Amino acid sequence: MKTTWTFSAIIMSFYLVACTPSQSSAPMSEMALQSWSQDDLAKFADDVSVTYRLVSNLTDEACADGAKATERCFIAEIDFTSSYDMLLADWAIYFSQMRPVQAVLSDEFTIEQIKGDLHRITPTAAFTGFHAGQANTLRFRGELWQLSETDAMPNYYIVANDAQGVELTPQVINSTRVQQDPETNMEVRPYAQAFTDAKRQYQRSPTDKLVWAKPEILFTQNNTVSADASLTVDSLLPTPKSQVIVANGKAISLHQGINISRQNLVDVQLELHDIQAALARLERIGVRQSSAGVPLVFERLSQDNNQSTDRYELIINQQNMIIKAANASGFSYGISSLSSLLNIDSLTVNPMQIKDSPRYVYRGMHVDVSRNFHSKQFILDLLDQMAAYKLNKLHLHMGDDEGWRLEIDGLPELTDVGSKRCHDLSETRCILPQLGSGPFSDTKVNGFYSKEDYIDIIKYANARQIQVIPSMDMPGHSRAAIKSMEVRYRNMMAKADKQAANEFILADSNDTTQYSSVQYYNDNTLNVCMESTYRFIDKVITEIAKLHEQAGQPLETYHIGADETAGAWLESPICQAFIASNQYGVTDINYVGAYFIERVANMLADKGIQPAGWSDGMSHTNPARMPAHSQSNIWDLVSHKGYQRAHQQANNGWTTVLSNPEVLYFDFPYEADPKEHGYYWGTRALNSHHVFSFMPGNLPANAEQWFDIEGQPFEADDRPQLDDTGKQTSGPMKAGETVDGIQGQIWSETLRSDQTVEYMIYPRLLMLAERAWYKPEWEVPYQYAGAVYNQTTDHFTTTMRQQQARQWQKIANHLGNKELAKLDNAGINYRVPTVGAVINDGILSANIAFPGLQIEYREGDKPWQVYTSAVAVKRPVDVRAVAANGKRKGRTLRVD
Questions:
Q1: Which residues form the signal peptide (predicted)?
Q2: Domain limits of the chain?
Q3: How high is the pLDDT of residue 438?
Q4: Second-level CATH architecture of 359-610
Q5: Which of 509, 522, 593, 801 has the greatest count of CB atoms below 10 A from its CB?
């Protein structure tokens, strides 16, 4: 493939070669280079050191002169340092920059946005070459801010031509590869310079009050809990609706296992495979099936339309253990509760009776495998843990701008091209690199599920009473599909089959609309006025439905996305003709997006499939034109009046699932620390306690206990709101209405490996399960007349706050003393919490969010020591926690 270079770059290359003095510290062979060879390119990529450094987020320092106080900018620098002279100028370095570059502030380089976050650095006429040991600094201004060290994306790569003008194989710059910390298993970015200045680097705006979660901050935060292992004796997650402990009951040992009668299974019409997954978890802990074991007896509960079909009863006594349920899910949940009750060291449980049922029918987890692909095994492991904690919906996001991840029969281009990102500017073999994916397609962030893989996933989920909800985001977030179908178009045209070429084309080639999506694409939106778009969608849905049928779990819900549509149709001739024809009664170009959602939703309903979408897109529709059975996922921030849209869509009668970012986006950082992984546009501190504190039954009431992204209080006014004409624009839910469930979300833009995703999901998933299953006594009752909530109102009473604190004390101890060990046992790479610590008068005091986990400290270069109580130390001192099994370590913090 040929590459065209700027005239100035070619002239500069000639000048540098011709005019370089003969005296230099570099070998003459290097000075005499007149063009690149593959070996030269590889050598330079291995040698050059790259350092990415955030300078400032402060408006007065980062923005251009005359900028408004509300403008948000940052300054960053990239250093390139070679150990030898490399004076050739005909090269380009590609890299991912997730915030757009506003201006280059260095004379030697220019930066050009290629697409999305892919940018290209090239030298200017002022470039004098890379000189041995000297840093060439590229300084630039970016839009908005950078608040995390992980914003610096990996896998910069260099491209150049040989003497004949043929592009050489791109080379990844070795210093920009991610590495893995052997103690934490987390990705680290050695090229990203650590933040040191909280004000300049970690302050989002002049009003930002969020405090960097250094050890002294964590110490205060962790003081809300204390170690009390006795609280875990009869504890389980999620908390049951009713639990009665037999007083002075003798513990029952399961060392000999459990004994399940085959005849008993026949008597209650229960198949062993229906509960096999739950039994497998017991076996991993150490409790196997054995004829010498404690009898586990199953009994049928009658179906009752007024009660949850997932309800169960668990009776543990000296003679046997009895699980009563109405269906397989109830029996499985009873076994899961037994696993959670079990002391992993003694394998004992106490006599008790539990009557339990879930708060919500929808208890979900969403996983994005499109931005960065995640393996089939990761999904299977996730399904195991979802079942263990009684979650029942897997929302699998497999189609977006950065990748299409499911094989579709008859449309091979979707995975042949759309599942891969590589350096192919023509996008005939793959789509462009994004998110630091690098130039090659054979990396783990690329990939897809074959039809067989997907069938296996569904079967695995079905055996665990989990429904799989597939999602290919449309009409926005569809660049991978659009580019794949363009390749199909060219392939068909090359065969002179124009009809086939146009069958599934997704964009109007004559659309001149200028737009930019949230992720900075200008070509990622399906044209909703083209019939070929609907043929494509129908084809995809039909083929996915077939896979569900083959797996034995009919496709009941399909999520179309419908969010963040940039509006790429204003200047589309096809859309203008569509409006003029009035064929579907659409006479306004601004309504075609809603028309798309309504049409696809009804297409799904006609197939017996419930349509689902994200709340922003769903809010644009006319509910009268939507199927009565539609689902909306509420992804609006509570602090930005997200409760209003949730209530409006619940009032539509739709299945309303809370997915609010500041509490349910598990790709956000755990703590306010720039070393924590994840995006942070909704919050920079989303730890397990925050998820636990969620009051899903009264969204606005959370304003009494939460702060916004900048640590500021906010108000939630849930009273009826009227516009100037007296029309109600928002208000409370109708009497008797409620939401139908909650769902955790993982978006994968910054999460490259399976281990990193597990780190972000766990243990927050356990708190998701707690809130989805159990309604706590401390939740503020919803007021259907409407009310105002803020930090000074007192709906969340002192008594409720005390009840919340007591329950968190129990759950925190349960996690540290009991539950995390079971995640270790399953091989889950959960986050080991960072340690709180202070040094006063030479005495180190330390604590942890989950009492029961071991804390270690280190003085200077001395070996790590176990921390048991306050101890005299000499600075500097580091602290860290250790996983429940004593192997993996948490991130080390320095105690100032």
A1: 1-18
A2: 7-202, 242-356, 359-610, 635-796
A3: 98
A4: Alpha-Beta Barrel (3.20)
A5: 593
Q: Are 10 and 90 in contact (CB under 8 A)?
A: yes
Q: Where are the beta strands (DSSP E) in 501-568?
A: 557-561
Token digits of residue 576: 């203008």
Distance set, CA 791 to CA 206, 704, 716, 778, 830 (Å): 22, 5, 10, 17, 33
The answer to whether domain 242-356 has CATH 3.20.110.10 is no
**CA angle at residue 568 from 564 to 570, to 5 degrees?**
125
CA neighbor of 653 nearest in space, from 685, 631, 621, 637: 631
pLDDT digits (tens, 9 = 90+) for 259-304: 999 999 999 999 999 999 999 999 999 999 999 999 999 999 987 7
Q: Quick one: 694 exposed, middle or buried, by C-beta within 10 A (0-12, 13-18, 19+)? A: buried
Answer whether 0.85 is exceeded by the pTM.
Answer: yes
Q: Is the dihedral of CA 274, 280, 286, 288 positive or negative?
A: positive
DSSP β-bridge partners for residue 139: 77
Contacting residues for 782 by C-beta, under 8 A, at least 6 apart = 697, 698, 701, 732, 733, 738
Instruction: Identify the CA nearest to 883 among candidates 862, 863, 861, 854.
Output: 854
d(CA 509, CA 527): 10
Determine contact, residues 487/428, Cβ cutoff 8 Å: yes
Q: Which residues of the chain have pLDDT under 50?
A: 1-31
Pairing of strands 294-300, 321-325: parallel
Architecture of the domain defined by 7-202: Sandwich (2.60)
Give backbone dihedrals phi and psi of 484, rounded to 5 degrees, phi first.
Answer: -65, -45
| Angstrom distance (rounded) from CA 807 to CA 235 | 11
**What's the maximum distance between 2 C-alpha atoms anywhere in the chain?**
94
Please list the active-site residues: 564
The percent of residues above 90 in pLDDT, for the chain, comes to: 91
Determine the pLDDT at residue 18.
36
Handedness of CA 260, 265, 271, 274 (dihedral sign): negative
* 49-59 pLDDT tens trace: 999 999 999 99
Beta pairing class for 73-81 and 49-56: antiparallel
Q: Are 255 and 349 in contact (CB under 8 A)?
A: no
CA distances from 150 to 75, 153, 188 (A): 16, 7, 8
CA distances from 308 to 205, 312, 696, 773 (A): 48, 9, 19, 11
Measured between alpha carbons, how far is 846 from 855 in angstroms, rounded to an integer? 8
710 burial class (0-12, 13-18, 19+ CB within 10 angstroms)?
A: middle
Strand pairing report for 362-368 and 741-746: parallel
